[in-house]
Structure formats: C-alpha cells, structure tokens
C-alpha cells in the first residue's frame, strides 16, 4: 500500500487517477507502475466537454525516469469518451502528451541531457532508450518550440549554405543576425528552396519589417530575396568578399608557381597557406619565409598586398568614400596587370549595390558563419546525416533557441 501511495505522490496524481499496482522485475531491472482511472466520466480532449466513459483503450506503456537505477514504466488502459462533436476520443493523461511513449518528466530530462552533451548516440545510451525514441523526443521538442515562437521584430537576417553530405548535397540556413539563432533550414540551395525557406521562417509582418539580408553572391539566394523581400536591402558581407579576394591571390600564386618551376625556381612551392593565413597567426618560421618572398616583389606578393589593402574599403565612413576607394584600388590592380584580382574586382562591380550596402548597414554574415561552425560540430558529433529532416531537427534543436520543454516555460 505504501509503494502505491509513494508513486502516486511522485507522479503528482490526483483523483480520479490512482496507482493500482507496482510490479518489481529484478531480473530485467524494471519497475512497472499500473494506473487506473476511477471515475465514470471524462473530458473530451478537443472541446473539454464532460461525457460518460465510453470504453478503454488497450494497455499502453510510457517510459518514466529511473527508480533506483531501474528502468521505470507507467502502464494504463486509458478511458475514451464519445463526443457529440469530435467522436470517440482518448482522454488526456496528466503524465504524458498525446501520442508520446515517454512521460513529461522523462522528456524534460532527455532534452536537458541532450543540450548538455550535444551527442544523440551517447544520450540514448545513457538513458537506455533507442536512438529512434530519442529522435522522436527531439522532433516533438522542435515542433513544440517552433509553435511557441512569438512574432518578434527582425531587422537583419543572414542566408547561407551548408553541405549536408558528400556529392554536393546542400542545405540553406536562414539566421537571425541579432538574436544569433537559426530561424529555419531548407533542403537544397536553389531559388525555390530559398524562397520556401523565407516564407516558412518569417511571417508577412516580419518580412515587411526587414531592413537588410546579409549573404554571399550566390544568384539563387539573390533572386529569392529580390522576389520574397523586395523592401529589404541585400548586403554582400566582408567575410565572403575577402574569401573571393583570397581565392584571387591563390590563383595568382598557382599560376606564378608553375611559371617559376619551369626554370627550376621553387620559391612558391608549398606556400599556399602563407598567403591565406593572417600574419599574427603565423609561426616564426612561416613569417620568416613569408617576408623573404615579399622582398622578391613577385606578382603573388602584389596580389596579396591588393587583397590586404581592400580591407580599408570596409572602414569607409560614407558611400562616397567607399566609391572613391574602390575606384583607386581598381585602377591600381589594373596598372599592375593583376589579372586574377581584376576578375574578382569585376565581379564586385557587378554586385556594387550589395557591396556598398555594407557601408550603409554595417552588418555581415559573421553570425551565419559562426552558426555554420556550430552546424559542422553537430555533423561531426552525429557522424553525418543521411536524411535532411534529421539534419534540420538537430540544427533547430541545438541552434534555434527554441522553448523545447514539454511544459510551458514560466
């Protein structure tokens, strides 16, 4: 009798729910708590109108928190009512949500453990449940969290791509630049997938209130934003621009290295990262070699200097200052015949509005790049994802800043 009362108190049950039996299975290290409903009436879960009990469902089982390191289960034949409006319905139980196979307390503990460990496999192993059951808990938590999102004002967003698996399989990630969170994720990086992502992640009011979108120069993203967010400015951020400039330097280096090697000059052999690395991050040995190469005033060194000089563009105080700087910089690389850098410059000219919008808004994709790094951690810990939906759930679970828990936050 005492054990039934104890578990009734632990589970927070009140009339008409009662603990009828507690079975202890030492061999299988399990505790099974049987609960009965001691009333002839129940409430419709849809309209909450009271009706007579119609019948009982088959016995169901829910995983609960362990008792003294023994796996604990709640079992119950849950009553059903016959509602005039909604038909035959199973009444709500106080220990679990609809269609769940775990209790509310178990779900909360599993979510807390996942957030702390960041590892689904190890969390499932620790909880002694299947990976599928844990994924179901995550999916429900994300669905719950998305439904609880309020319509906050969003001024700046970022859109970026992330590889999901080998074979050029990508996802598009929409992020909130101010709140440093993922808004949502879509499969692919086409115009249609980016448009779908914007419409799924933002309400009409939020779309109207947006000021700027930070992104790469990927045409599909540009077209989607122009179509779905006509009032928002496109900002091509400095991280991606510097990436293009670095690529121009590396192509220059490779071309010049081939020419030098024809005359048995190995000056630029294995020098790739000398021109891609920041000076402050170089070892003494790397810095010494880099300075010796610079003294030779190779074409590669000139391209590197042009790339470094372009950083001043982002410090321009006005649009006119930025335009003047770019014109001077472009003229300089043309006079030096830095062909690979000229090609990058022409691309920047073709996207001049997005380039100059950086000066207007002073936003970049640093949050999106940071989130990309975190997404890579999720991929690494999860050892990759074969299904897009599983990848999306993991990203939103860990990076969506959602209210994930099964009971409303107070």
UniProtKB/TrEMBL annotation:
InterPro entries: Transpos_ISL3 (IPR047951), Transposase_DDE (IPR002560), Transposase_HTH (IPR032877), Transposase_Znf (IPR029261). Residues 92-130 form the Transposase IS204/IS1001/IS1096/IS1165 helix-turn-helix domain. Residues 42-86 form the Transposase IS204/IS1001/IS1096/IS1165 zinc-finger domain. It comes from the Bacteria. Residues 157-395 form the Transposase IS204/IS1001/IS1096/IS1165 DDE domain. NCBIfam families: transpos_ISL3. This is Transposase.
């Amino acid at each position: 009798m005492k054990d039934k009362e104890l578990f009734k108190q632990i589970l927070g049950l009140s009339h008409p729910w009662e603990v009828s039996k507690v079975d202890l299975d030492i061999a299988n290290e399990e505790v099974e708590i049987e609960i009965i409903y001691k009333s002839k009436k129940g409430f419709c879960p849809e309209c909450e109108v009271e009706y007579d009990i119609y019948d009982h469902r088959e016995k169901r089982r829910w995983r609960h928190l362990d008792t003294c390191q023994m796996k604990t289960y709640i079992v119950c034949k849950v009553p059903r009512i016959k509602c005039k409006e909604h038909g035959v319905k199973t009444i709500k139980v106080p220990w679990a949500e609809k269609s769940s196979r775990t209790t509310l307390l178990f779900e909360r503990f599993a979510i807390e453990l996942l957030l702390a460990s960041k590892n689904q496999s190890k969390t499932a192993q620790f909880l002694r449940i299947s990976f599928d059951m844990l994924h179901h808990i995550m999916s429900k938590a994300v669905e719950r969290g998305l439904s609880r999102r309020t319509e906050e004002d969003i001024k700046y967003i970022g859109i970026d791509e992330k590889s999901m698996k080998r074979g050029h399989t990508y996802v598009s990630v929409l992020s909130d630049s101010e709140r440093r969170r993922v808004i949502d994720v879509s499969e692919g990086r086409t115009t249609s997938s980016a448009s779908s992502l914007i419409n799924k992640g933002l309400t009409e009011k939020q779309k109207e209130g947006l000021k700027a979108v930070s992104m790469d120069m990927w045409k599909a993203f540009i077209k989607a934003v122009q179509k779905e967010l006509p009032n928002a400015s496109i900002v091509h951020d400095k991280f991606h621009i510097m990436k293009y400039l670095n690529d121009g330097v590396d192509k220059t280096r490779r071309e010049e290295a081939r020419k030098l090697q024809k005359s048995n000059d190995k000056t630029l052999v294995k020098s790739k990262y000398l021109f891609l690395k920041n000076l402050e991050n170089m070892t003494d040995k790397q810095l010494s070699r880099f300075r010796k190469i610079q003294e030779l005033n190779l074409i590669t060194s000139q391209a590197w200097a042009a790339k470094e000089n372009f950083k001043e563009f982002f410090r321009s105080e006005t649009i006119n200052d930025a335009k003047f700087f770019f014109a001077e910089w472009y003229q300089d690389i043309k006079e030096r015949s830095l062909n690979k850098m000229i090609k990058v410059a022409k691309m920047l000219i073709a996207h001049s509005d997005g380039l100059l919008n950086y000066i207007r808004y002073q936003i970049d994709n640093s949050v999106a790049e940071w989130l990309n790094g975190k997404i890579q951690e999720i991929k690494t810990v999860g050892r990759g994802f074969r299904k897009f939906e599983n990848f999306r759930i993991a990203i939103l679970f860990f990076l969506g800043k959602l209210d994930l828990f099964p009971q409303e936050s107070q």
